[in-house]
Amino acid sequence: MTTPVPLLLLGAGRSRRRRRSRWCVWALVLLPVGVVVLAMLSFALALGGGLEQCAASPAAPGGRGPAGPSPSRSAVADIPASRLRLYRQAGRALNIDWTFLASIGAQECDHGSCAGDNGFGCAGPMQIAMRRRSSCSPGGGPTLWDLYKTDGNRDDRLDVNDPADAIFTAAKVLRREKNAPATGGIYAEYREAACRYYGACGDAVANYAEQVMRRAVQYGFRGEGSPDPTDGATARPASNVPPIPPTSGGNSGCGEQSGQPPAGGARKLGAARRVYQPRSLAPLPSSVVATGFGAMQCDARIVADVVFLMRRFGTRVTACQSIHSLSGEHPLGAAIDVVPGPSGGWQTVERLARAVGWKRACAASGMAPVCASPPFRFAGYSGYPGHGDPTSCIPCGGGPHLHLSWATSASQGQKENRPRTGHFAPSWIDVLRPSNQPKDLE
Ligand SMILES: [Zn+2]
Q1: Ligand 1 centroid vs 94 CA: distance in angstroms?
Q2: pLDDT tens sequence across 298-322
Q3: Under 8 Å CB-to-CB from 292, ≥6 apart: which residues?
Q4: Contact present, 260 and 63 (Cβ < 8 Å)
Q5: How far apart are CA 350 and CA 400, in angstroms?
Q6: Ligand 1 centroid to residue 192 C-alpha, Å
């Protein structure tokens, strides 16, 4: 149990508790926003097909995202080996860059224990809000610990002071509540997630987000937009770092809802990233359009993905931006319908479907994260009404096809979602590869 430290006595000394205190103040301001976000999250999960039970319960930390960067010499020097292993395991399980997670752990508690309430209602190595009606968690509603607590080491005990439980829980909070991107995500978005974790990007006490990001880069973070490391020599990968050991216990399946690509999903195709520009339509090259179909347009941000996928799998597009399936992504120009190319059969389409995370077992929903991996939100194929190969497509008014939707800021459960009777451009779309390279297109 640590002794609460009165704010004004902390003076100029570096104090992680002092830094956290700002978070607590901001929590008061941000609570109403959090309630809205939670409501939206529940709605999204409901749409996802009855996964709420996993979300509300202390879900097991299974699942496998990418391993992320190789630890740098700085990381190995700064982080105790057992703690480094936990950051990397949690990073892979929740599909968040472990260097970022570790840097938050350094910022909050210097990879230490920080056991007990800090006096403001936050506790443990990741300083997670766990006491209701406290500065960290005003009001009587559930705290972040209540909502996301995770048994990281599968010992059937949930303890905010246990580093494994705290780190897996923080990873989940960062991904689900603070909008941290998946492993491979860009620097600016991780920086924003650090701001949200603290409640501000920085203040008079700590330049929180800058410090977190600078240290993450030093640990090995190399997301797009990263500055050079402060010390290039020690930012190089360390030698003899063991591979990430599996987390103990089996995969409950609940881990998948955290958004990490399930094994065999789109992660094989590359990391998802969020792009904001350009918000306009662009033509698809005729080489990827199915024979007999005329010119078609997609949102410019997915054109590079479409070209890449069609060439890689030998498939063709029959529709992109289109005023049909009005609640989906076709009107936005962020969905395609796919059929075999001139020299391939339906197995080429199924290969594409499987590469983006589709599996027959979840085909009736087709929804991410179980049946579509980022950046895809939905894959409609054999087993989903009106979609699939010729033997599975029932009813089949639109003809056999695979439908693929990219995740956008106007997709179901997102705040720009609204009825569409015409085209409008969402603020962001998650994509495999940035699209502003027209020279690549033909
Ligand atoms: Zn479609």
Answers
A1: 29
A2: 999 999 999 999 999 999 999 999 9
A3: none
A4: yes
A5: 12
A6: 33
Residues 6+ apart with CB under 8 A from 156: none
* pLDDT tens per residue, range 82-132: 999 999 999 999 999 999 999 999 999 999 999 999 999 999 999 999 999
Whole-angstrom distance, CA of residue 291 vs CA of residue 332: 24
Coil, helix or strand at residue 382: coil
Tell me how crowded residue 258 is: count the other CB atoms within 10 A of its CB. Answer: 26
Structural contact between residues 72 and 219, judged by C-beta atoms closer than 8 angstroms:
yes
CA 291, CA 424: separation in Å to the nearest integer?
28
Any idea what the Cα angle at residue 400 is, between residues 384 and 335, rounded to 5°? 70
Is pLDDT of 44 > 90?
no
Measured CA to CA, the distance from residue 79 to residue 110 in angstroms comes to: 9
Gap from CA of 318 to ligand 1 centroid (Å):
9
Summarize the chain as % helix, strand, coil (round to 5): 35, 10, 55
Residue 226 CA to ligand 1 centre (angstroms): 36
| pLDDT tier for residue 63 given thresholds of 50, 70 and 90 | low
Average pLDDT score over residue span 329-356: 95
- Determine contact, residues 273/430, Cβ cutoff 8 Å: yes
Place of tokens 């205190």: 21
264 burial (CB, 10 Å; 0-12 / 13-18 / 19+) is: middle
CA 386 to ligand 1 center in whole angstroms: 10
Contact assessment for residue 124 and residue 92, using Cβ atoms and an 8 Å cutoff: no
Q: Hey, is 219 helix, strand or coil?
A: helix
Distance 241 CA to ligand 1 centre (A): 45
d(CA 365, CA 50): 10
| Radius of gyration, alpha carbons of the chain | 23
Strands 122-123 and 429-431: unpaired
Provide the b/e sequence for 328-351 (b: ≥16 CB within 10 Å): bbbbbbbbbbbbbbeeeebebbbe
